[in-house]
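May I ask you for just one protein sequence along with its backbone structure tokens in two labelled lines?

_____
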Amino acid sequence: MSQSALPRLRRLSQVLFFVLFLIHLFGTEYPGTLQATTGDIRLPVPYPTIFLLSDPLIALSNALATHALYRGLLWSLTILIPTFFLGRFFCGWICPLGSLNHFFSNLKSEKKRGLRLIESNRYKTWQTLKYCILIPLLVASLLGGAVLTVIDPIALLFRSMTFSALPATNVALVAVLGALYRSGIPGAGFVADALRFLLQSSLVSFRQPHFRQAFFIGLIFVAIMTLNLRVTRFWCRALCPLGALLGVVSRWSILGIEKNATACDECKRCLLHCQGGDDPIPGAKWRKSECHLCFNCVSDCPSGRIRFKFFPAPAATQSSPQVPRRRVITGIVAGAALVPVLRSATSFAPERDPRLIRPPGSLDEASFLARCVRCDACSKVCPNNSIQPAFAEAGVEGFWTPVLVPRVGYCEPSCTLCGQVCPTGAIWEITQEEKAWLPAASKPGAKPVRVGTAFYDQGRCLPWSMATECIVCEEWCPTSPKAIYLATATVIDSEGRPKQVRQPHVDPNRCVGCGACEYACPVKDRAAVYVTSVGESRSQANQILLRRG
């Protein structure tokens, strides 16, 4: 195959892998039916987070933080090993966020025309910024903190699509379908039914998801895409820590550019569509660690004097990233200081926010923060929309990590999907039997996984404060026997007459903290019953009851 045909093959690869990413993203969609059976509920896609599992940065961060490699993260070798031989092929041929950046970079703008475009595609010193981000990220991971993996490109794209893009698309499509149904136009109802049938397992959810901070997360994503209108693949060149890691690994690659400077007429067309800003132009050193292997320089060269070959002459190649030693030292110090500073705040242990309720199967807080990469696949798959991104509940280190918000949705007793999709083991994969929230699916005498305990605000509870009958929380309580029980009490009503009212109480030995009571409470502004993290199974210190042994 001629090298000039490689850009067309690359574009086909980008489209195919982006479609594959969408398929796996939609594969984490809750299918809409959960049955209270003894069998485990499984997702239709075996590995819905395959792009996360094959992410070398996530695998390396996880390995440094935990001194182990969680299950499918060995998939990352399928990216790392070829990078040793070929260079940053992942960035140019596979990465779904890179493909989006590539698409928006190809849109015309006044800042990227003619000589401006050619000059903007020369190598710039600010491209070393991504290495200055990678260094503290890896050092912090070594000390047990994964906070900087929040900017991993695959996790960022997964999070942006989950929290902002897909929910907004769902709202728009439902509005369009509703307009078609109401239009009265002959055949419009049939078209709406056909569209719903085609999109019901992808863009149209069985239930409209709502997420906190959706606008803010979407705004960041839009800003990243918009920057491509000024600088080609700005994120990939300047900020991407995964690209920086692959750039370091690619210094040993045996594939490179060979340039014939003597036959060059200095037309500079090789810079016209350069995606990496790696200086393929003759007369300058080609920067191997920046090249995305887009092959545009080869196809654009009118004289055919630029070729990719194995074992090119090393004299015209800059193999290693040019990061000043002072920046390397600063990055190491920043990463080493980051985790201790964050964990010295009161939010980590002494003054834990009571709203910090982690999904069932989550590890203890220190281990959880060491593993969680904020991909939020668990939020995508949650059937009741109860898993939301944290804001201040877990402090700065826990920003965007998953928390249960019972007021939005309760934890479904028969569901264990969040552990299935977690790529790093921050949420351990448990079975219904291990969760033990359903009597039919648990062993006799099994201790259930607890995520918290419910409490009553008696000043807001209708039976307690207003002498008004209400048993909604008791009816919704899913445990067996019920953790919420009713005790009849005699109260005095506003007319001074005695009245019998059933008042709810919580048995802390039975409560698992699912949040169904808080979700269903009819006092809508601030629930009369609420769940806090006290009593959670993952922490022996955060307990309300003293237990023998």
